[in-house]
Amino acid sequence: MAPSLFDNIIRWIRAGYPEGIPASDYPPLLALLTPLLSESEITDVVLGLALEYGTDTPATPERIREAIHAVTEQAPSADEIEQVSARLAAAGWPLADRESVTAAEPVVSKTEE
Asked: Is residue 5 part of a domain?
């Protein structure tokens, strides 16, 4: 069975951020996820990653929803989005649309195998 969109996104984020996601990259990451996933799916992704990597500040569904709304009201800069896009593209993320993300496979680095 092919991995789901959710599974692929988690795998790309892990591949692009093996040490965890810096707080400064969350807004552009949310901006990249917003066209692909529903608010509920983004909440699941962020909560899963927060549990996996640990955070200085607890992630809650309410805080994630607030962050999603903040990103939609005041988008990150083009440079911030480009930086995160490049990092995820290096891990194989096609960044095109939901179907492309579902169909493609993340690139696994030699250290992850």
From this structure: no
pLDDT of residue 18: 85
State which residues form the domain around 48: 10-103
Domain count of the chain? 1
Q: What pTM did the predictor assign? A: 0.67
Q: Is residue 51 part of a domain?
A: yes
Q: Which residues neighbour 22 within 8 Å (Cβ) at sequence distance 6 or greater?
A: none
Host H or E run for residue 13: helix 5-16
Pick the more confident residue, 105 or 94. 94
* pLDDT for the residue numbered 90: 84
Decide: 92 and 106 in contact? Cβ < 8 Å.
yes
Would you tell me the crossing angle of helices 5-16 and 39-53 to the nearest 10 degrees? 40
Q: Compute the distance between CA of residue 72 and CA of residue 84 in angstroms, rounded to an integer.
A: 17
